[in-house]
Amino acid sequence: GSYIDWESRLQDGKVTRRGCKRNRKCLVCHHCLRVTQRLIPHILIPNLFVLRDCLPFDPSVTSLEPLYQTYRATVITKEIRRQTVGTIPLPTPGQSTLWQDIPGVRDSGVLETLSPEQCKYQESMFEVLTSEASYLRSLRVLTEHFLDSRDLDEALIIRDRKTLFSNVLRVREVSERFLKDLEDRMDEGLVFSDICDIIHYHAQHNFPAYIDYVRNQIYQEKTYTSLMKTNVAFATVITRLQESPQCQRLPFMSFLLLPFQRITRIKMLIENILKRTKEGTTEEQTASKALDSVSKIIEECNTQVGKMKQVEELIHLSKTLEFDKLKAIPIISQTRFLEKRGEVQEMAKGGNLFNLRPKFTPVYLFLFNDLLIIATKKGSERFVVMDHAHRSLVQVQPIREDQALSPSYEHCFCLTLLENHQGRMIERLMKASSQSDLHRWIAVFPNPGNHDGDQEEVIYDDWGE
């Protein structure tokens, strides 16, 4: 490892000379002595001796971790080599560190005192630390190499820069604090007591920063794609920055996607720890709490991503729908989402079930959670709204077999608007493209003959305002 100036640490009062059972002058860290209270084989430092267990955790161990995008593959490769070849040399830059590879662990003799399962338990906790170090290394490339680039800053307007990088500086700060707490725990002894209490604390107080970042991810991707097509200066700078050795030929977008990948990976790491924790112990309870708190963060991330996608879809639809002869209603709403859309055929006005050759014209149905819109197509991506009604004021029923006097009426259903945009009841005869499509349309509407529902339906008077 790196050279430690123990003489200066003596002068600073961080360590002190003290006799031990072997009558040697030892340097003993006050904090470690208080925690461990045990003697482990000595190592020689110029003219001095120091207790092995009193050496603090050397952060340079985790500085060897690869970028997070390649971290998992490196861990798997190294473990395969360990199992097939046996002991392997110390890691070199770009390789992941295993707990058993730490010089202090290998030299202390502690591996001989632990069972294989106990060693795996230690490795499962240590992987949280090494993977966080790898993740933080990639975040620093994103912030220091890309975000702090003067050329990139000049190629972006403030709005696009904010959309691309979101709150990544806050996310990096969260990672730095988390890693420091993990390293401090490693400082207390070579064998981990527990780390899930640390994860649980950060999930409650710091990890919510991931929710804000992930919520913005859909706009990140769209902005990046648009800039690469329309902003030549941006595309040129990004291409040059990606070619830097710091990036290891990894694309810019792979760095932007890291936070959501990380929070989901932490959940998997906790599950691995929990699997190796003894049942009925305090450690099991702590691991369960950590898993629950991180799962809630991920669940909220997914919820926010879903909401953002729904809003994006509504924005797109609002641009394609035209209220030509009707009073326009707002399409975009935080609580609205599209459930189903598709083309059906409507029987022309004046037609009835007794016509042997009825005339059908194509119409499009847009079914939202609180609204049904009936429209005709105008061009490739435009629709003219013909009618609309609140979702709770719409009923669908298939026509009876004895009503269909011609094969032309196959797959037909009656669409009833109890109150349309004019406040009138309207019945429309629709024809689905197939039997399965007919079943799907009927399934998304409540059965008017079913009055046994457990939940009373609420109709809102202000739904169209």
UniProtKB/TrEMBL annotation:
SMART domains: RhoGEF. GO terms for molecular function: guanyl-nucleotide exchange factor activity. The keyword Protein transport does not apply. PROSITE patterns: DH_2 (PS50010), PH_DOMAIN (PS50003). Keywords: Guanine-nucleotide releasing factor. Residues 346-450 form the PH domain. It comes from the Eukaryota. Pfam families: PH, RhoGEF. Residues 120-304 form the DH domain. This is Rho guanine nucleotide exchange factor 15b. It comes from Oncorhynchus mykiss.
